[in-house]
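Appendix B.2, paired examples.
Example (i):
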Amino acid sequence: MADLLGDPTWPQLHPRPCTDTPWPGLQCELAPDDARHLRATRLHFGPDVATPPCRPGARLAAPVLLGLPHLKTLSLFGCFVVADC
């Protein structure tokens, strides 16, 4: 998320994003095999998510997605654009 949001400190500031981060772009579900664990199942970045929106020129590397094996939905709006020079 740090690469999409442009904030390298985001993981340190929000070590438990499923429970301690009131961010509407993240949805988590209880693991069916262990109710003590939450899994990130939905990520949404865009201008409608006020804090923080996806930054222009964001990066999304394949290993990031491999680290989210339970992700069901990923929506990105207004990302990966380069401002005119």
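Example (ii):
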Amino acid sequence: MLLESTTEAGIKDCLGYSLSTFDATAKDYGTVDSGTLPTLSSYFVGAYLNIINNAPKPDGKREGAQAVALRVSGDRSAFYGCNIFGFQDTVCDDRGNHFFKDCYIRGTVDFIFGSGKSLYLDTEIFVEIEPKLTVITAQARESSSEDTGYSIVHGKITGTEKGSFLGRAWKSSPRVVYAYTEMTDVVNPAGWSHEMQPERTKTVYYGEYKCTGVGASSSGREPFTKQLTEKEAEPFLSLDYVAATKWLLPPPMI
């Protein structure tokens, strides 16, 4: 059963889905601990869930208004067909190897963030309008020696925003790749942000490979980003990116 407010927030047809809601914010519990659904164990599998943080949209005036919907802190975790709703900091992709397939993630600022190593496959990312700034990813790798990052493959970027960044250098060495992803005009022509810290242009790894749509045009991209070759993209394109052939369980049949 869907709450009226979640229908208004834009949930697609989710009949038969389980619903998890909460309204905690960073002011209440701290950002990481504000999640509606925190998963801390390894081998967690979530399927066909609506995971929603109902806290009010941050207005730039209230301190600590960011609010997590899903926090994934366990290793070898998978999510199938889940709808994850929030505004700022929707998904805390905290740590460990994770796999998302056929999911729908909605937010405004840094709404996929953290130090996880994750593969997002066939997942739609919806950017909701925000007057000041919208950013999809804030991956938190701090050194090239850290084996973390996000690979978003066969995805789709939609929304009501115009000018959203694919990622920003929240930490010094984030690694994010989009491959075979359809990008609408939601995406900022520059693509990526170094967070007004030019020194980070030397340490970020931001790549794109065979993406499509008007938002995927490389003509206006920042020079510190990469249009990957086939060889460069290959490690990001398979389940081996998160070693999933060793642990991945199929989605349950319902």
